């Protein structure tokens, strides 16, 4: 079965009908809110919202299954390495020590360290659904038209549009080349040794690179023949005007970001960390 990672499939629902500019502003606003704060309460609040938005978008888990596996592996490695290299950082941040158990004098497990590391994991886990929503529910051409309207050069906007479009094309090309090579006897299964499998994958990457270069040249020639870049401005076939729901969504994203600042400077007394140990 071919992967649907980064594939845009149009649907008729609230999330898909938002402007590409709106989704970009919301993604940046919510991401900044999560990255700025270390208050586990606020981060969990944004995480719940991101899960709700993902459900509202109608996206299927199989579309992000591969990415989810990579994220889980990354979070697990990050969790372990954080403890290995900074086992006492939580106690330094919160200024107290509530020991649970110890391995030796350096490696002790404290409530403060667990809170700090769980907060870090929650920060990353909150942003991933937002990123997937943005990538999988935004028409690349419509998104390019939206950011061009707010002042971004249309050449840069179009380059970004081509990049977003090319992700699924590259994945499909890789799968097609892999199937063609396997029909010629190239074994990519676990029956082969790891070194042999890596070598076989490289045999797929080489034609993929050449096919990609050919496609780039083809697109570049087509754009030149159509006079792309000759004028300072251009029109967009799929430009979508901002509606009331778009302004409401951007206002909500701004409110959530300001809420993160308020939690820091008013609720937590200027500290980015929520300290339940005092």
UniProtKB/TrEMBL annotation:
Membrane topology listed for this record: Multi-pass membrane protein
Subcellular location: Membrane
Chief localisation class: membrane
Entry keyword set: Membrane, Transmembrane, Transmembrane helix
CDD domains: EcfT
Full protein name: Energy-coupling factor transport system permease protein
Superkingdom assignment: Bacteria
Transmembrane segments: 14-35, 42-61, 67-85, 247-267
PANTHER family: ABC TRANSPORTER PERMEASE, PROTEIN ABCI12, CHLOROPLASTIC
Entry keyword Transmembrane helix: yes
Taxonomic classification: Bacteria, Bacillati, Bacillota, Clostridia, Lachnospirales
GO cellular component terms, A-Z: plasma membrane
């Amino acid at each position: 079965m071919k992967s649907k990672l980064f594939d845009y499939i149009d649907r008729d629902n609230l999330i898909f009908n938002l402007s590409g500019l709106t989704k970009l502003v919301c993604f940046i606003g919510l991401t900044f809110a999560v990255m700025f704060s270390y208050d586990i309460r606020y981060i969990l609040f944004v995480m719940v919202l991101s899960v709700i938005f993902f459900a509202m978008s109608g996206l299927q888990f199989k579309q992000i299954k591969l990415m989810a596996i990579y994220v889980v592996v990354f979070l697990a490695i990050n969790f372990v390495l954080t403890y290995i290299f900074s086992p006492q950082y939580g106690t330094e941040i919160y200024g107290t020590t509530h020991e649970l158990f110890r391995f030796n004098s350096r490696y002790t497990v404290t409530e403060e360290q667990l809170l700090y590391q769980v907060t870090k994991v929650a920060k990353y886990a909150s942003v991933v659904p937002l990123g997937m929503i943005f990538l999988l529910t935004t028409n690349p051409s419509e998104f390019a038209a939206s950011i061009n309207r707010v002042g971004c050069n249309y050449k840069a906007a179009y380059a970004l549009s081509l990049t977003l479009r090319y992700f699924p094309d590259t994945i499909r090309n890789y799968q097609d080349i892999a199937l063609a090579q396997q029909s010629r006897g190239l074994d990519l299964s676990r029956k082969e040794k790891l070194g042999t499998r890596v070598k076989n994958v490289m045999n797929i990457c080489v034609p993929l690179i050449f096919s990609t270069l050919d496609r780039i040249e083809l697109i570049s020639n087509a754009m030149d023949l159509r006079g792309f870049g000759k004028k300072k401005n251009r029109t967009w076939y799929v430009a979508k005007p901002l509606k009331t729901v778009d302004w409401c969504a951007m206002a909500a994203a701004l409110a959530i970001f300001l809420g993160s600042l308020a939690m820091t400077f008013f609720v937590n007394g200027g500290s980015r960390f929520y300290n339940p140990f005092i």
